[in-house]
Design goal:
This is (2Fe-2S) ferredoxin. This protein is α+β, with helices and mostly antiparallel strands. About 25% of the residues lie in helices and about 15% in strands. It has 2 helices and 4 strands. The chain binds FE2/S2 (inorganic) cluster.
Length: about 120
């Protein structure tokens, strides 16, 4: 591969989309909070099951460590778009799967936008 490639779309990709979902669990009273304490685990289980059961072989799913915005959790990010979502219900997960992961459309009501300080 040419080392001067600047159009990243030329680079072969393993997945069409890749989801990273924070699985960090801190005690409920921890001052930073955590996605785990905010109920992430059953949501990510549903997400993983949906991706597998729906045969989304072009979608990668990685349970990650802390993504850095703990009090806003549960948080997940979808690449290559770089969209941060904060789902809180199983229905939210289903909507992200159907709308974004399958159809490439934004689930605007669940988007988290972080401003740099
Ligand atoms: S604990 Fe999930 S972003 Fe930090």
């Amino acid at each position: 591969m040419d080392s001067q490639v600047t159009d990243f779309s030329e680079v072969p990709q393993l997945y069409k989309r890749h989801v990273f979902a924070c699985h960090t669990q801190r005690p409920p009273t921890h001052p930073r909070g955590s996605c785990g304490a905010a109920g992430a685990q059953p949501l990510w289980e549903r997400l993983g099951n949906r991706i597998g059961n729906d045969g989304l072989t072009d979608v990668g799913f990685t349970v990650s460590g802390c993504l850095g915005f703990c009090s806003a959790g549960p948080l997940m990010v979808v690449y290559p778009e770089g969209i941060w979502y904060r789902p809180t219900t199983p229905e939210d997960i289903d909507e992200i799967v159907e709308t974004h992961l399958k159809n490439g459309e934004l689930v605007e009501r669940l988007v988290m936008v972080f401003a740099r300080a």
